[in-house]
Amino acid sequence: KQEVTQIPAALSVPEGENLVLNCSFTDSAIYNLQWFRQDPGKGLTSLLLIQSSQREQTSGRLNASLDKSSGRSTLYIAASQPGDSATYLCAVPFSNTGKLIFGQGTTLQVKP
Amino acid sequence: SAVISQKPSRDICQRGTSLTIQCQVDSQVTMMFWYRQQPGQSLTLIATANQGSEATYESGFVIDKFPISRPNLTFSTLTVSNMSPEDSSIYLCSVEIWDSSYNEQFFGPGTRLTVL
Fold first, then answer.
1. Residue in B90, B102, B110 nearest the CB of A49
2. CB B78 within 8 A of CB B20
3. Percent helix / strand / coil, chain A, rounded to 5
């Protein structure tokens, strides 16, 4: 059974810091991994999708890496800004069904 | 990508009543899903909404409590029946979009439900 874990659960940093969010999964036979952002009480915004054959993906100040063999992904945020404050969720699909299994999320606060 | 809208965005309901949530997508999609996010928790899949057939429910969720309709490839509804305070959650629909060799999921803005 696939389980997804995210650490830390919460993180508070001063503006301008570079930071890393971690996601681990128990079954390395994944098709892809998605990182999402969720603002309080809102829906999810897709940030990055890494296919199983890829090692990393970049979008602006965000960089996501994937190491299937160790069951880990990281989301790197460069030069953090107060607008980055949100909950970040990683998710992997169950087999290739489209059903997503989510981690518990990391709630990030970036202080001005 | 896909643009997904949900109605209502939020509601406050009395226990014992039912609420129907609508999900509209701006393009035809094969796979639509409904998720629940209880306060302070991550997302849990309720069911897969299948066009032209009954929804496929995950363990712990039943059709009598969460009936789902999928009349076409751009629209679905989720009803939360006979509500209790434990049903207070954010309900989100999502769609799966295929782009050549990979699939990506996109989510609606969610419906925030409070049951008194």
1. B102
2. yes
3. 5, 55, 40
